[in-house]
Amino acid sequence: MTDTNHGRPPSFASGSLEDPRLTSALRTLELTVRRRLDGVLHGDHLGLIPGPGSEPGDAREYQPGDDVRRMDWSVTARTTQPHVRQTVADRELETWLAIDLSASLDFGTAGCEKRDLVVAAAAAIAHLTSGGGNRLGAVITTGDRVLRVPARGGRPHLQSLLETVATTPHAAEGTRGDLAGAIDSLRRPERRRGLAVVVSDFLGSTDWERPLRAIAARHDVLAVEVLDPRDLELPDVGDVVLHDPESGRTREFSVTPQLRSDFARAASDHRRDVEKILRGCNAPRLTLRTDGDWIADVVRFVSRRRHGASMGTSTR
């Protein structure tokens, strides 16, 4: 088991609830999250996604930077001045995780696999949104199966949810992921305004854009991007055999400077496309890397968002 004190999550490769190593890894993860996040999150879920709750309040005149989705058209028509509907903070938040565990997440060349980071991210979100009657649920997709964990509160439920994520079986060889389907399933049944968190490496097709926009029209959205260095650049290793677990194809390449340049450019262009989509959905992006200190990245993300909220500015 890797020591989380050095910025690496534990390994959850055992995949069995009967394995005491998994229980120990989840306990270590929980302690790490508590110790590192309690100092920056003394409060409620507004530390993660700053902003008002979901209950309707009074209307006020529109100001530049206000969310146009909260326009109060009846007051605007009556006064001939743009107005937005303020909301009263909702202390019972329902958060849903759309978790991508497709084959591209079963990979890692640095401190851990991307799948381990997914479990760590889920633990951090659970801690950041728990308490005060808040509930957390999850839709977990591997491409060939979908697991749904009902939204409930309480520490036993959160532990059970993390165990489910950590022990989700790997996708069969040649199975394509279905992030779009997982996000779309968050729309049913209809829920009051809450928080939707999408955890994925966002590699491959961006066919998840439309369902994400539909979710963002009603809920706050957070994207957690999980990456490995090899997702962004190829090492200078000469001849190499590359295998795509989602298509089942294997090819041999000579890693030339031109191929490395083309690969890095394509990876950069794809991330730019993902960023554009997320920005269009008002979804902040938290990036965690297998070669980084994931808990420090979470702390910095939360601190920036809390600071932005206290300054009265948008951090989206």
Distance between the termini: 36 Å
Total number of helical segments?
Answer: 8
Mean pLDDT: 84
What's the main sheet like?
6 strands, mixed
Shape: globular
Description:
The protein is of the alpha/beta class and 316 residues long. Helices cover 34% and strands 21% of the residues. It contains eight helices and ten strands. It has helices spanning 20-37, 73-79, 114-129, 155-166, 179-185, 209-216, 257-280, 294-310, and strands at residues 55-61, 83-88, 94-100, 135-141, 146-152, 195-200, 220-227, 238-244, 249-255, 285-289. Strands 5-4-3-6-7-10 form a six-stranded mixed sheet, sandwiched between helices. Helix 1 (20-37) crosses helix 3 (114-129), helix 1 (20-37) runs parallel beside helix 8 and helix 5 (179-185) packs parallel to helix 6. The protein starts with 19 loop residues before the first helix and ends in a 6-residue tail after the last helix.
